[in-house]
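Side project, low priority. Logging it here so it doesn't get lost.
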Amino acid sequence: MSAQTDAINPKHERQKPRERGVCAASVLELLRPGIVPMLAMREVKRHKCRAPLTRMAPNRRILPSNCGLLELIRAKREWDWRPAAEDLKKGFRGWHQRGYLPHFDAPGVTQFVTFQLHDSSPIKRRAEWESILSETDGSMKRKKLEAWLDHGCGECWLRRPKLAELVEGILRQSNGEKCRVQAWIIMPNHVHLIVDVGDVPLAKLINNWKGKSSREANKLLARRGPLWQEDYYDTLIRDESHLKRAIRYIEQNPVKAFLAKTACEWTWSSARHRDEYGRLPQK
C-alpha cells in the first residue's frame, strides 16, 4: 500500500514547495499586455535596517473649508468682472479666495493692501481678536482689524530700523517697473500700501515682496520660519475720493497709533517723501 502511494504521490509532489519569490517566466507572463501585474500589488518587505519603500505624497497646500466664503466668491463672479483668456494666462483670477479672505485681482486697478507679521495675532490672545473674524460687514471688519494691529502685538520686528528699511526698500524697488506704489507705511507689525496694478497680478507682487523680505529679514534676525502671515487684505479703490481717504489713513497711521506726532516724522512712510504739492518723486 505504501509503495502504491509513493508511486502515485512522489515525495517531491507531496511536499509543498516554499515560496521564494516569482520566477523569470512568471515575470515575463505578468509583463504581457493586457495582464495586470499582480506583483506590484503585493506588499514589498524590507529588512528592518533599510528604509521602507514608500512614496511620499506631494506637499500640497490644502485650503481650509469655508462655505460662506465660497458662496460670496461665487456671487461676486456672477455680476462682476471676469478675466478673459489672455488675463488668465498672465495669472489674473478676478474674484477668488485662498481659504481665508475674498480677493479681487485684475489689471488696471488700484488696491489698498495690508499684510501683517506672522505673530501679530498670538494664539494666547485669541479671545480678543477671534470676534473680528466673525464680523459680517467687510468695512467694519477691516476697521476692527486695523485697530487691533495698532496695539502692537507680537515681536514687532519691523520696529527695528534695519528691518523696516529692508521692507521699504523692497516695496520701492518694484515701483515703476511691475507696478506703481502710491503710498506705503511700515508699522511695527504690519504694512499698508496702495498699489496700481499693471500686467503683473497683485498676488504675484505680494508673494515676491513677502518672499524676498522673509529671506533677508530671517538672515538679520538669525532665525528660521515664516515672517508674514499667509494671507493678506486687499480693498479695491473705487474712485479719486476713496483714494485720497486711503492715502491719508495710511500716512496718518503712526499718528493714530501714538508712534509719531506728525506723519512726516515716521521714517518708513511715503509721507516723508512727498514734496510741498503732495507728490512723490518719479522713479
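Brief comment: The first helix runs from residue 2 to 8.
Revisit when time allows.
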